[in-house]
Design brief:
2 copies of one chain form a homodimer.
Chain A: H1 9-20, H2 25-34, H3 45-57, E1 61-67, E2 75-80, H4 82-97, H5 105-112, H6 118-148, H7 157-181, H8 188-196, H9 206-212, H10 216-223
Antiparallel strand pairs in A: 1-2
Helix pairs in contact in A: 1-4, 6-7
The structure holds a DNA duplex.
DNA sequence: ATTCGGATACTCTGAGTCGAGTATCTCGGC
DNA sequence: GCCGAGATACTCGACTCAGAGTATCCGAAT
């Protein structure tokens, strides 16, 4: 059994458009773009073609014809198979019915922010908040424009979703910046004094170095995390 | 100039731990895990070792010694270089100071949900909401446990962040399920009747097929999106 | 008449990703 | 004193991904 892999949503999008009618890859891309799905699903040609290959290998889609127009490159039209039809609904049910852990970049930044001094972090968070504000407005204008064009709101829920997340992110980011500034979170003072008194952990004998660290409590606490 | 690529946060985490002191890859992994960073940054051995290779190639870290313990595999200890030190702070500033577009799986699901009938979607969204509820509790208990263990709250902000997003996601998901059920969003009735009267788009001549589609308005509207 | 941007339609390559696999050592329980 | 579970430390290979590159065609403006 060829190990199923539902990691790449682009494959699901391919199955979905092919459920409507057979197409060649380039047309799939054009269709997705015209529906704004490229806003929610990462789409670029390299991935598209290899995704289509993968789906073909797994028997979820199959080429139905290849046509050539003048001296242009050949176009291969694909159709979804019965297995493919089953897969679309199963996969979609999985996406809509469960929550999968994701790893946003910003979360990594938060986990490692101790490397920078707190004042710097506060300034950066404020910048980020402004960027998120713009992003929220951008999303709003997409919805407004589409609605004015007669697109029924059901087709825009993925944008609403993104906006809800951006707004939550914005609120969190602003709040964190404020809390760090006012040192309203435990450990900020130690973090600050660590950076003010040297900051860079010296490289050398690990054992020596441990006792060189200014704010021992912080390091120990961080290392002692038992989750 | 070797094109910099800051796509993989694991590389940043490697630079960050090596900023503290030189280590061999396996120890880096153990350190990250002990700090709970594997909750925020995707970590597995395959990626770790190739990430370390990449950083070495780009001159951001360098091997300082290789030691062997009995007949065990050799351990190569790496240290961060000056370029590496610059890179950590620059990269971190980028992560904390800007927002990068991400593509959550669920958003893809929302964009394609039209493939399933609305009632099915409502049921699935309810399931997802329950899962998110559990996830929120899990995150809360992580914070509680760590705090009880004496970890200063500053080291837990990335969990707070995740929790804020999960809660926003939960609120959105529940709200959407309700709205779809009550058809409080424009286009749901058309969607429903489309599925009740056949549902599957026939495969065949594209031109014919277009006029076969029961709810023409829906399809046209979706295709007419101009964003 | 010509040219030049943009659309059409893929192809190539190098790099990254991930899980499973390998082999050794350690330590506690019986 | 031996056995198995878990920790230590990495390796391998199949697959995926991104984005630049290639080649052709069309239409509108020069």
């Amino acid at each position: 059994m060829p190990r199923r892999q539902r990691s790449n949503p682009l494959a699901l999008a391919v199955l979905a458009v092919l459920s409507e009618r057979p197409m060649h890859p380039y047309e799939m891309a054009a269709t997705m773009r015209s529906r704004g799905h490229d806003e929610s699903i990462r789409l670029n040609y390299g991935s598209l073609y290899s995704t289509v290959d993968g789906l073909t290998r797994r028997g979820l889609i199959a080429p139905v014809e290849t046509e050539r127009d003048g001296r242009r490159p050949e176009r291969t039209v694909y159709a979804v198979t019965d297995d493919g039809r089953t897969e679309v609904t199963d996969w979609l049910a999985e996406l809509l019915g469960t929550s999968t852990k994701e790893y946003p970049q910003f979360e990594a930044g938060l986990a490692l922010m101790g490397v920078l001094p707190p004042d710097r972090v506060v300034a950066l968070l404020r910048e980020r908040a402004d960027a998120l504000d713009l992003e929220s407005l951008r999303l709003e204008s997409i919805v407004t424009a589409a609605t004015d064009n007669g697109v029924p709101p059901v087709f825009l829920v993925e944008i609403d979703y993104e906006r809800a997340l951006v707004d939550a992110d914005l609120a969190f980011t602003r709040r964190l910046a404020d809390d760090l500034e006012r040192a309203a979170i435990g450990g900020v003072d130690e973090w600050r004094s660590f950076h003010e008194s040297g900051g860079v952990v010296p490289v050398g004998d690990p054992n020596q170095e441990r006792s060189d660290v200014p704010s021992e409590a912080v390091v120990e606490a961080e290392e002692g995390v038992a989750r």
